[in-house]
Amino acid sequence: MKEGVISRPSLGQASDEYERFAVGSLLALRQYCSSPAAAAAIEREGAMRGGQYDVVVWDLERELLEELTDARLLSGVEVAAQIRWLRSALPAETSLLLLDVPPVWEDGSPVPKAARPEAPPWALLDGVFTPSELARVIALCEQLDRSAVRDPEIAGFKLATTSVVHYSVSADGAPSFAGDEPPDPLLDTGWLFRPLVAALRRGDAALGGALPLRAFCTSVQYNRYDGGDHFEHFHVDEVECETAYKSLSLVLFLSRPDEYGGGEFELRRGEGGQVTALRPDANSAAVFCAREVFHRVRRVTRGARRTLVLWACATRASAVCDGPAEPCVAFGRIGASPFL
Ligand SMILES: O=C(O)CCC(=O)C(=O)O
Ligand SMILES: [Fe+2]
Q: Which residues, 6 or more positions from 66, have their beta carbon under 8 angstroms from its beta carbon?
């Protein structure tokens, strides 16, 4: 038993919620641990309550939850630092257990990879930014170097993906940076991410809670479609990989519908679902389940159609430890079922 690990000074008494999460973590660990020896160890520790593995996972999540409850954002780098700290304080076999925790619901069951069936497949939210923020987003995005996506079968438009999301907010609300990369001018303040994260949360609530407990949002992608550009290929955004999965997609419409012709955003649930075509107002966002909702952008006939796209991801702890493929910002589920 590693006493040092459970006595991090900043952590107080566990609340009921945290207790429940601790149990959930144990269940998930038991379910997902492949090594029989590890499974037996978890069984033993679970019986003891407050056992080593419980506490390790619990502390990590508590730290996150505390940050999130304060509406503070954690960067991927900070999460990685926490995990490294835990790993250094633990024997090797413990960190192995830590690495295999999938996102779980309150009752310990794995988070489904799609929104709940009874929930609507997408949500359209308005007023994501203030008007001045929106103008600032557009102005900054236009400064980014865009590369062209050109595949006649699939898509033709220009995109820029911002590279750095090492963003956090200190207790007094001042922006600060984790990691040593120079701040990206687009991403170095909370004004951009707070509204986007809030929109993801609102969207998640509207979809009945598709977000996993431990979620991150990716860097933002800026898309610009000039006349003739399109993303005609119906696709889902999620690409299965070992390190993370996208759970929610957010497409923020930066252009007013009268600023471009064509460019309808079409969505459908699943392969055979009915297609809905949208031309949303500027400053509104479509939020939808990244695995389940097929979507495409019809060809733009005039003007420019601009969007900002980002994703909520669930990330395995190991992915963060090994360095996430995409730097990410953590955010949480607060105030509703189960942890939002
Ligand atoms: O730009 C859009 O409206 C959607 C883009 C999209 O579907 C994507 O980047 O995956
Ligand atoms: Fe997409």
A: none
ipTM over the 0.90 cut-off: yes
For the segment 66-125, what is each residue's pLDDT rounded down to a tens digit?
Answer: 333 332 223 333 334 444 444 454 444 432 233 223 343 334 444 444 445 667 889 999
Cα(258)–Cα(279) distance, rounded to whole angstroms? 9
Of residues 10, 2, 102, 14, the one with CA closest to residue 52: 2
Question: Does 90 sit in the ligand 1 pocket, CB within 6 Å?
Answer: no
Given CATH 2.60.120.620, say whether it is the number of domain 122-331. yes
Give kind and range of the element (H or E) at residue 224: strand 221-225
Q: What's the CA gap between 214 and 329, in Å, rounded?
A: 11
Decide whether any atom of ligand 1 lies within 6 Å of the 53 Cβ: no
Residue 250 to residues 54, 229, 287, Cα–Cα distance (Å):
34, 20, 4
User: Can you spell out the DSSP letters for 90-106?
Assistant: S-HHHHHHHHT---B-T
* Nearest CA residue ID for atom 9, ligand 1: 309
